[in-house]
Specification:
single chain, 371 residues, 17 helices
Length: 371
């Protein structure tokens, strides 16, 4: 099994970082810093807990004045690039929220996001002063740096994974929309992915807002059309009639009449956690009309959760334009090993073949405890 992400924060990493700090701040006690970080709670701490532990402990070993501490981090930031250095913006979140530190904290978050990402650290600032912080995010949307422009969108996603929740934007996403408007034709794919993910987040609570935005944006620019397509993915998977119509898919009721044959089977009736199985599918479609109809083929796995409930995850197979008759068949290997984002539990797992959200065929497999 792959090493967990939290393992990146080991004694060697902390020693290297401590040496960097010592090179610009001679009073820094690297060994004491490592000892205080890796205390008796360290082994049981998960990734974000370890990150926060580094941030808070760093504050105890740097000068007490926030301005001096930030200046030291600025001096080493160009040598601290990558995911592990998320504790740089986290330091700003922990120590920089006082009113007198606002301007400096904004400067730090903007600078540090290029080395890791400030998307998590900006969220407490949004909750504290939404109007002021969203004005800052709107200004960042015009930055020449793609990292800062991405921060403008990613930081205000209503449902950012691992991030502090923003219930105010789940209720009303209106403050987000001017930012997305500025970024809807961004030349950076890195930024456009964030805009699409933000729209997808909004669609889970306010689908009509996203559908109206998509109708208004559609056809304006190829970059924008890509964003719309990816931003409405959840609505498409849910077979939302308005979303399907927007992209030319057959609606669910119409899809059912197109299917003349559908089957799905597995090469095994049971598999242990950590094992694999192969899924085979076959689909025959017939369209009586003269105009082509778009169809999207997916499969869904209803994963058994810890308390016996199930959680469905969809997986894309293919997309076709149907005119007349169409026959499709294929196979996929299903992997049942635990991931950092998904843990498997024994039980009966239902697997369904979906055409434009319509359940065309299904089967099941018994997931056994690991051998």
């Amino acid at each position: 099994m792959a090493e967990p992400l939290k393992a990146v924060y080991d004694a060697e990493f902390l020693q290297h970082f401590g040496n960097l700090i010592s090179s610009v701040y001679s009073n820094f006690q690297t060994e004491a810093f490592i000892r205080d970080v890796m205390d008796e709670t360290w082994e049981d701490s998960e990734l974000k807990q370890r990150m926060r532990k580094i941030s808070t402990t760093l504050g105890q070993h740097l000068p007490a004045r926030y301005e001096e501490a930030i200046d030291i981090l600025f001096q080493v930031r160009d040598r601290c690039v990558g995911f592990p250095y998320l504790f740089f913006p986290d330091f700003v979140e922990v120590y920089g929220q006082a009113e007198e530190h606002w301007d400096l904290s904004m400067k730090a978050l903007e600078a540090f996001t290029s080395g890791s990402s400030s998307e998590f650290a900006v969220r407490p600032f949004i909750l504290r002063d939404p109007e002021r912080m969203m004005a800052q995010m709107l200004a960042w949307a015009d930055s020449p740096s793609e990292h800062v422009r991405r921060l403008a969108s990613e930081g205000c996603r209503p449902r950012l994974p691992w991030g502090v929740s923003l219930p105010l934007f789940k209720r009303d996403p209106a403050p987000i929309l001017p930012i997305l408007e500025r970024l809807k034709e961004d030349p950076s794919l890195y930024v456009r992915k964030s805009v699409a993910n933000n729209l997808n987040d909004i669609a889970k609570d306010n689908p009509d807002v996203v559908l109206e935005t998509a109708r208004r944006w559609r056809g304006g620019h190829p970059y924008t059309d890509w964003i719309i397509r990816h931003g409405l993915r959840t609505l498409i998977r849910k077979a939302d009639p308005a979303a399907l119509a927007l992209f030319g898919y057959a609606e669910m009721d119409e899809t059912a009449t197109l299917i003349s044959h559908a089957s799905i089977r597995l090469d095994s009736s049971e598999v242990p956690i950590g094992g694999n199985c192969v899924m085979h599918y076959e689909l025959h479609l017939t369209s009586p009309g003269s105009e082509p109809v778009k169809v999207r083929l997916e499969y869904a796995v209803d994963y058994v959760r810890a308390m016996g409930r199930t959680s469905r995850k969809l997986f894309f197979l293919t997309e076709k334009n149907l005119q007349g008759e169409l026959k499709m068949q294929g196979q996929r290997t299903l992997h049942w090993a635990d991931l950092s984002t998904r843990r498997h539990y024994p039980g009966l797992h239902r697997i369904t073949l979906l055409v434009n959200g319509h359940e065309a065929a299904h089967t099941s497999i018994e997931l056994l405890p690991p051998r």
